[in-house]
């Protein structure tokens, strides 16, 4: 290759490598801070001070949702990452996709009793889209599998 | 093949080859896009949770992906321009600016209007959304930097360098939902038999609208590039001759 | 074969109660893309007019009376 051209290739390569390195180090330094929520496990590890304004994320534990008042304006549920649980209390309007077994992100603070007092509830959606028929077929297949004594497919919070 | 590519490197050949190719590209683009959007809006089954609101996916995902890929193309052109001093590459890179910004804006806008009824918020400062917003600013920055120079040579060099720096952002956008926890979901996996999620009746319309939008991207970039060629080659004999032939409407 | 998922036009526009979000998204999409298709055409015609005007000026200054400068198709049309 022409020496001048070779030099220009090196310049282009060093721009790419240099900026990747700089941004990479920056992201590495901020790693924890770039998470949009804390998981119940992280809260159990004591990463959060009580009364600190934070977001928590997890799945609404199946069977834990309790609605109080007319039209369920005040709700209680347990957010879980399958490892640790955290009770959540919330008063207000819920997004359409909020339901048991689905991902949830709650904004608020942890009180002294370890209950999360949420001021905002956001629903987290996974990357799987399907029609009601497909979903029903999937559920039926899962039920059959469970009936055969096979463990149902593990359903975790999407990363 | 190599000769064909070599020819594309000459502004005049690029212009002449695209002249015959444009109507076909435009036809294919509008056909694919039309099928994809009509199918997606009217015929695809609604999602079992989101209902008809999920139909936004047929424009949100292809425009977001398109905004990322057109940036990759712009960066490849910038590298070619810097290494080989290829003029056409710089003209193509310049032509990517407005359409890339537009795709970014569409992806952010449709994402917000999908997020509100689904998540419960128009916006959240998570890694995925924030890195994508940065992509929009990088596009605008590259265009602004280019227009800040009087000399065309300096402008294209500076814009090329900034474009290359911005490439770091692309993997961050793609992997944001994997590396950090975000409200935005991760990339969908198609054809995963075990999960049987994302079945064909859901993604086939997206395939049409996706390829339609890729066609549209190329169409718009080529149209801008042809203008740029005419302007930069305005003193060349072939442009002077073309001027006497070409009709003026509008 | 995929079936039409809605019962009539009104039902289609209602989008299962999500009309505002769906049509805002698609509306923005079409407006921005229409602008993107209009812009290069508009710029092309402006550029052609500009270059042709320059060509005519040049032809006039180089050789005042010849046939080419007097030809009707080289003068910018007033309706353009």
Descriptive overview:
The complex is a heterotrimer of chains A (159), B (250) and C (80). Chain A is built from three helices and six strands, in the order ααββββββα. Chain A has helices spanning 3-30, 40-44, 132-147, and strands at residues 53-60, 66-68, 74-80, 85-91, 103-110, 116-124. Chain A has a five-stranded mixed barrel. Chain A starts with a helix and ends in a 12-residue tail after the last helix. Residues 150-159 of chain A have low confidence and may be disordered. Chain B is an all-alpha fold. Chain B is globular and about 60 Å long. With 80 residues, chain C is an all-alpha fold. Chain C has a domain at 27-60. Chain C is rod-shaped. Chains B and C meet through helix 2, helix 3, helix 4, helix 8 and helix 9 of B and helix 2 of C.
- Give the terminus-to-terminus CA distance of chain C: 49 Å
Give the integer mean of the pLDDT values of chain C: 80
The largest sheet of chain A has its strands arranged as 1-3-4-6-5
CATH class of the largest domain in chain A: Mainly Beta
What's the Cα radius of gyration of chain C? Answer: 25 Å
Radius of gyration of chain A, taken over Cα atoms and rounded to an integer in Å? 23 Å
Helix content of chain C: 55-70%
Q: What is the number of E strands of chain A?
A: 6
Unreliable spans of chain A are: 150-159
Largest sheet features of chain A: 5 strands, mixed, barrel
- Overall strand count of chain C: 0
Going by CATH, the homologous superfamily of the largest domain in chain A would be Nucleic acid-binding proteins
Number of helical stretches of at least 4 residues of chain C: 3
Query: How would you classify the quaternary structure?
Result: heterotrimer
Overall form of chain C: rod-shaped
Biggest interface, and residues per chain? A-B, 47 and 48 residues
Question: Which stretches of chain C are low in confidence, meaning pLDDT under 50 for 5 or more residues running?
Answer: 68-80
Structural descriptors:
heterotrimer; A: 159 residues; alpha+beta; OB fold (Dihydrolipoamide Acetyltransferase, E2P); 2 domains; five-stranded mixed barrel; 3 helices; extended; disordered C terminus; B: 250 residues; mainly alpha; Four Helix Bundle (Hemerythrin (Met), subunit A); 76% helix; globular
């Amino acid at each position: 290759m022409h020496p001048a051209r070779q030099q220009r290739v090196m310049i282009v390569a060093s721009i790419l490598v240099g900026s990747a390195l700089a941004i990479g180090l920056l992201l590495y330094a901020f790693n924890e801070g770039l998470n949009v929520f804390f998981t119940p496990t992280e809260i159990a590890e004591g990463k959060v001070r009580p009364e600190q304004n934070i977001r928590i994320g997890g799945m609404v534990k199946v069977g834990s949702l309790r609605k109080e008042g007319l039209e369920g304006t005040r709700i209680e549920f347990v957010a879980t990452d399958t490892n640790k649980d955290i009770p959540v209390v919330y008063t207000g309007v819920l997004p359409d996709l909020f339901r048991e077994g689905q991902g949830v992100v709650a904004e608020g603070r942890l009180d002294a009793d370890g209950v999360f007092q949420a001021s905002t509830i956001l629903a987290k959606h996974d990357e799987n889209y399907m029609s009601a028929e497909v979903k029903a077929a999937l559920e039926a297949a899962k039920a059959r599998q469970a009936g055969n004594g096979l463990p149902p497919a593990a359903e975790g919070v999407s990363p | 093949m190599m000769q064909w590519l070599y020819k594309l490197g000459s502004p005049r050949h690029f212009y002449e080859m695209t002249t015959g190719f444009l109507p076909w590209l435009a036809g294919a683009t509008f056909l694919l896009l039309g099928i994809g959007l009509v199918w997606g809006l009217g015929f695809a089954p609604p999602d079992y949770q989101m209902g008809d609101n999920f139909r936004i996916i047929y424009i949100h995902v292809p425009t977001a992906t398109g905004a990322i890929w057109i940036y990759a193309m712009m960066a490849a052109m910038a590298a070619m321009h810097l290494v080989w001093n290829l003029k056409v590459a710089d003209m193509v890179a310049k032509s990517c600016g407005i359409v890339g910004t537009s795709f970014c804006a569409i992806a952010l806008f449709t994402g917000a209007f999908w997020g509100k009824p689904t998540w419960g918020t128009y916006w959240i400062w998570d890694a995925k959304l924030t890195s994508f917003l940065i992509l929009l600013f990088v596009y605008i920055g590259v265009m602004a930097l280019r227009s800040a120079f009087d000399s065309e040579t300096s402008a294209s060099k500076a814009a090329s360098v900034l474009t290359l720096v911005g490439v770091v952002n692309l993997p961050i956008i793609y992997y944001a939902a994997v590396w950090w926890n975000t409200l935005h979901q991760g990339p969908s996996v198609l054809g995963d038999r075990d999960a049987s999620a994302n079945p064909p009746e859901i993604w086939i319309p997206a395939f049409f609208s996706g390829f339609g939008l890729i066609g549209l991207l190329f169409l718009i970039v080529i149209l801008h590039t042809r203008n740029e060629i005419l302007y930069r080659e305005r003193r060349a004999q072939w442009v002077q001759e073309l001027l006497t032939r070409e009709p003026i409407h509008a | 074969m995929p079936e039409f998922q809605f019962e009539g036009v009104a039902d289609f526009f209602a989008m299962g109660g999500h009309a505002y979000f769906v049509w805002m998204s698609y509306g923005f999409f079409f407006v921005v893309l229409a602008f993107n298709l209009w812009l290069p055409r508009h710029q092309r015609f402006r550029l052609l007019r500009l270059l042709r005007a320059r060509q005519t000026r040049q032809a006039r200054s180089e050789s005042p009376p010849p046939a080419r400068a007097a030809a009707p198709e080289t003068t910018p049309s007033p309706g353009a």
